[in-house]
Design brief:
The protein is an alpha+beta fold. The strands form three sheets. Strands 2-1-12-11-10-9-8-7 form an eight-stranded antiparallel beta sheet, with helices on both faces. A two-stranded antiparallel ribbon has the order 3-6. A two-stranded antiparallel sheet has the order 4-5. 33% of the residues lie in helices and 18% in strands. A hairpin with an 8-residue loop joins strand 4 and strand 5. The longest helix has 18 residues. The radius of gyration is 19 Å and the shape is globular. It has one domain: Beta-lactamase, CATH 3.40.710.
Length: 356
C-alpha cells in the first residue's frame, strides 16, 4: 500500500477548483487525477461524473484506456530486453523480423523514436471509415502491416520524424518473438507485477473491457455524445492498449523515473531526444526519445512522459524533475476525447502546485 504525504487543504481545494473549471470549459463529464511527489503517493482526486447524465460521481480509481501511453510501456519492455542482451537498439530490424520488407537501415531505436519513416494508419481514410463502420471488429495484424507495405517508407530511416503506430506494432512483434511471451504477459512480467499493480492490464477482447468507465465521443454519431466503452475493440490499437487507473498509472510512471522498473541509466536513454520537434504550446522544446516525449528546457527542469488519445478518452502522464522543489509525477485521465485535454490538465495542475 502506498504511503501518502499529507496534502495542504488549500492546495487540495485549489486543485479541485482548477480541474472543475477545466472540465466545465471543455464539456467533459469527469476526471481522475493522481500525483506522486519525491517517490511517494501524494494525492488522488476525482472530479465530476462517470456518466454524461452527471448522476454517478467519478471514482478515483476508474478504469480508462491509456491509449498511446502504452507506447511508453512497450519502450520500457524493449529496454528491459536490451538489458537482458536479447535486443540491440541499433541492430537492423531484419535481425528480428525477417518476413517484413523493411529497408535494411531501419533499427529498433528508430521505431521507438518515430524516426523510421514507417507510415501510420490514423489519418488513412480506409482505417477511419473501418473503425466508424465496425468499431467492434478490428483489422488483423496482417491488415495493418499490409497498409505499411502498400504505402512504403515516408522518408529514409533516421532523416525525419513521423508518428507511427505501425512502427510500434512492429516493436510489439519483435518483443513477442524475442521473449517468447505475448505482449500482455511481457508487460505484466516487466512492469505490472513488480510494481504490484492490480488494475492495470492489456485487454484482448471486448469481454476484457467490461469494467471501463464510460468514455464519450461524437466520432460515431455526429454531434451526439455516445459511450464507446463497450463497443470499441482494443484491437483497433495495433500495438495493443493497456487499461489503467490514475493511481496506478501515476505509480507506474513515477516508478520508472525512480529506477523501480529499469536501471536509471536505461531510463536516461529513453529520455534522450532523438528528434527535436521544437516549440509547443505547453513545452519549451519538445523532443521525442524512446517511448517518451521530453522537454529539456522546461521551467520545471526536465519533463518527460506521454499522452493518450482515442475514442472516449484523453489521458496524460508526465514526470517533472522539479515541481515547487520536489520531483513529481502527474496522471490525468478524462472520459471524453478532447484533443490534448489530459495533457493540458496535467500542466494546469502543475501550475497550481507551484503557485500554492
Amino acid at each position: 500500500m502506498a504511503r501518502y504525504t499529507p496534502v495542504n487543504r488549500n492546495l487540495r481545494e485549489q486543485l479541485k477548483f482548477t480541474i472543475e473549471r477545466s472540465l466545465a470549459k471543455s464539456q467533459i463529464p469527469g476526471a481522475a487525477i493522481a500525483i506522486w511527489r519525491s517517490g511517494r503517493a501524494f494525492l488522488e482526486i476525482s472530479v465530476g461524473y462517470r456518466d454524461k447524465e452527471r448522476k454517478i460521481p467519478m471514482p478515483a480509481d476508474a478504469n480508462f484506456y491509456i491509449y498511446s501511453i502504452t507506447k511508453t510501456l512497450i519502450a520500457t519492455a524493449s529496454l528491459y530486453l536490451v538489458s537482458e542482451g536479447l535486443l540491440e537498439l541499433d541492430a537492423p530490424i531484419k535481425t528480428y523480423v525477417t518476413d517484413f520488407p523493411l529497408d535494411d537501415a531501419v533499427t529498433l531505436r528508430q521505431l521507438l523514436s518515430h524516426t523510421s519513416g514507417l507510415p501510420d494508419y490514423g489519418a488513412v481514410p480506409a482505417s477511419f471509415e473501418a473503425v466508424k463502420a465496425n468499431p467492434s471488429s478490428p483489422w488483423s495484424t496482417e491488415a495493418f502491416l499490409d497498409l505499411a507495405r502498400t504505402q512504403g517508407l515516408q522518408f529514409p530511416p533516421g532523416t525525419g520524424w513521423a508518428y507511427s503506430n505501425i512502427g510500434y506494432l512492429l516493436v510489439k512483434i519483435i518483443l513477442e518473438r524475442t521473449s517468447g511471451l505475448s505482449i500482455e504477459k511481457l508487460l505484466n512480467k516487466v512492469i505490472f507485477s513488480p510494481l504490484g499493480l492490480k488494475k492495470t492490464f492489456v485487454p484482448t477482447t471486448l469481454e476484457d473491457v467490461d469494467r471501463l468507465t464510460p468514455g464519450y465521443t461524437t466520432f460515431f454519431n455526429g454531434n451526439e455524445l455516445q459511450d464507446m466503452s463497450r463497443s470499441y475493440h482494443p484491437g483497433w490499437v495495433a500495438h495493443s492498449v493497456a487499461i489503467s487507473t490514475a493511481p496506478e498509472l501515476a505509480k507506474l510512471v513515477d516508478g520508472l523515473f525512480h529506477g523501480k522498473i529499469l536501471k536509471l541509466s536505461l531510463v536516461d536513454r529513453m529520455c534522450y531526444p532523438i528528434h527535436h520537434l521544437g516549440k509547443h504550446p505547453l513545452f519549451e522544446n519538445l523532443g521525442c526519445g524512446l517511448g517518451l516525449f521530453v522537454d529539456t528546457e522546461s521551467p520545471y527542469k526536465k519533463v518527460a512522459g506521454h499522452t493518450g488519445e482515442g475514442p472516449g478518452y484523453s489521458v496524460a502522464a508526465f514526470h517533472f524533475s522539479s515541481l515547487a522543489g520536489p520531483n513529481a509525477t502527474i496522471a490525468a485521465l478524462v472520459n471524453r476525447d478532447k484533443h490534448d485535454c489530459g495533457l493540458a490538465l496535467v500542466y494546469k495542475i502543475a501550475r497550481t502546485i507551484t503557485e500554492c
